[in-house]
TrEMBL record:
This is L,D-transpeptidase. It comes from the Bacteria. The active site is at 71 (proton donor/acceptor), 87 (nucleophile). It comes from Bacillus songklensis. Belongs to the YkuD family. Pathway: Cell wall biogenesis; peptidoglycan biosynthesis. InterPro entries: LD-transpeptidase, LD_TPept_cat_dom, Transpep_catalytic_dom. Keywords: Acyltransferase, Cell shape, Cell wall biogenesis/degradation, Glycosyltransferase, Hydrolase, Peptidoglycan synthesis, Transferase. Residues 3-111 form the L,D-TPase catalytic domain. One of its GO terms (molecular function) is acyltransferase activity.
Amino acid sequence: MARWIDVSTAKHQLKLYDGNRLIKVYPIAVGKMLTPTPTGRYTIINKQRNPPGRVFGVLWMGLSKPHYGIHGTNNPASIGKNVSHGCIRMYNHDVIELSSMVPIGTRVYIHK
């Protein structure tokens, strides 16, 4: 089975699955009220280590919805909150671990 990502914006959780098997749960930050994280089904289309503009932390994984992604943060205190412009923020060590386990093309399902 293929790996896929389930994101709950209400629970501030990102879950990594391999088919039906849960591999790991990560705490995340999501979009604030004025710039909510978009719900829907997307795929990871690119990855970039040390992206420009320190706000993305150590790694960026772009989603098939333009301008949205899963990325690290230079503000670890923001994890667990609704603070981003719609992106999914993770601790830097978590986004590096996740990136190593999911290839480009991985499905991402985002819901409340």
